[in-house]
Specification:
The protein is built from four helices and no strands. The protein is mainly alpha-helical and 130 residues long. Helix 1 runs antiparallel to helix 4 and helix 3 packs antiparallel against helix 4. The chain is elongated, with a radius of gyration of 17 Å.
Length: 130
């Protein structure tokens, strides 16, 4: 079982379900979803009572934040080589490209996770297709 996984992989969970979030219906699953969503956004978001009170709204904020980060990573990847070529050595540019790629991969997975968790918070249930 991967480190951080709260429950074994559940075949009834949609692809992209975050390891840190318990399956819908499990004890404290919504609390695990809220904790995971808050981990995706800036710490100051925790000060907004409305986000703690309405997890679906928190999921919306998290989705917007992750989407913005993903777009920023993509933009950085597209432009860093041209914009900083004169200020950084080639190995730093290549390392930046790798960092942007890794961050983009992480954020794309987070975006998928936010989508499926938000659906579950809205009461949607995933049904596997053959």
């Amino acid at each position: 079982m991967p480190e951080g996984r709260l429950t074994p992989v559940d075949a009834t969970l949609p692809p992209g379900w975050p390891d840190e979030v318990r399956p819908p219906g499990a004890p404290d699953w919504e609390q695990s979803a809220v904790a995971w969503l808050f981990d995706l956004v800036p710490p100051d978001y925790r000060a907004h009572e409305v986000l703690r009170r309405y997890p679906v709204l928190l999921a919306r904020f998290a989705g917007d934040h992750v989407a913005a980060g993903l777009e920023a990573a993509r933009a950085g990847w597209r432009t860093v080589r041209v914009e900083l070529a004169d200020q950084l050595p080639a190995d730093a540019i290549e390392a930046a490209m790798v960092a942007y790629e890794r961050e983009g991969t992480r954020l794309a997975a987070a975006a998928r996770g936010v989508d499926v968790v938000a659906g579950a918070l809205r009461g949607e249930r995933w049904v596997p297709r053959l």
